[in-house]
Design a protein that fits this description.
Elements (H helix, E strand, L loop, with lengths): L24 H14 L14 E2 H10 L6 H9 L6 E3 L5 E4 L19 E7 L3 H7 L9 E3 L3 H9 L4 E7 H6 L5 E2 L5 E3 L7 E3 L2
Antiparallel strand pairs: 1-3, 2-3, 4-6, 5-8, 6-9, 7-8
Bound molecules: ligand HQG.
């Protein structure tokens, strides 16, 4: 097995042609996001109803499809992930993504009272559509909301020039809308109708 520094960053993931040890925790995070949120079948992996995969199975399936991950590297990628995107169970035998799924999993999050105001970061080019339709989850299960404006700006900047909506979470909650908070602090709700949105910039 090569060391982490002598392989090419990001190449070979899922290629199935050569075995590559990902040399960056970011590369591993992207790989895990793809497999644990969207396409486990890409490496022949099965998740349970709550989104968990067996660590040993993940490592074996990844290796079969060209991505060599040791347990140590995997655990380091989970531990050091900037957004704490992944969780291990206490026995460290299972792993899952904390949020962001497009595949059908039930994370068994408990409904929670949100703070009065939450934020949604998007890009300026989506603003008109959002003002017509409200916030929709798109390919994901939920609309993702941030606890702070700063986080929302960073989320929006992934899509282009950032734009932040304030969400009247207090009123939504009062009106019966259900909120969850993922393990890593992202607020989730099914949709946000236009009447709860305020343009902030
Ligand atoms: C937009 C990252 C037009 C929405 C982040 C967003 C987050 C609409 C885009 C997590 C719309 C969907 C999720 C409407 C919503 N018309 N556009 N009616 N309603 N949109 O990536 O919230 O790094 O699926 O504003 O930190 O950007 O992956 O959602 O711009 O927590 O861990 O449609 O992804 O986390 O984009 O990001 P996304 P998001 P990770």
């Amino acid at each position: 097995m090569g060391s982490r520094s002598d392989v090419h960053l990001g190449r070979g993931l899922l290629s199935g042609l050569i075995h590559i040890v990902p040399d960056s925790l970011v590369t591993i995070s992207k790989f895990l996001s793809l497999i644990l949120r969207h396409q486990p079948e890409k490496i022949g992996l099965t998740l349970d109803a709550e989104g968990w995969a067996l660590v040993d199975e993940l490592i074996a399936c990844a290796a079969k499809h060209g991505t060599v991950l040791s347990r140590e590297l995997l655990f380091e990628a989970v531990d050091k992930n900037s957004k704490q995107r992944f969780a291990l169970d206490p026995s460290k035998t299972r792993i899952r993504a904390n949020q962001g799924h497009s595949i059908n999993v039930d994370l068994r999050l408990n409904p929670l009272e949100p703070p009065p105001i939450l934020f949604h970061g998007t890009a300026t080019r989506f603003v008109d559509s959002i003002l017509r339709q409200g916030l929709r989850p798109g390919s994901r299960h939920h609309v993702h909301l941030s606890a702070t404006r700063e986080t929302a700006i960073a989320v929006g900047a992934r899509h282009g020039v950032p734009f932040v909506f304030e969400v009247d979470a207090l009123a939504m909650h009062r009106d019966g809308c259900v909120f969850f908070r993922s393990e890593n602090g992202v607020w989730l709700t099914t949709r946000v109708p236009v009447r709860y949105l305020n343009k902030t910039r």
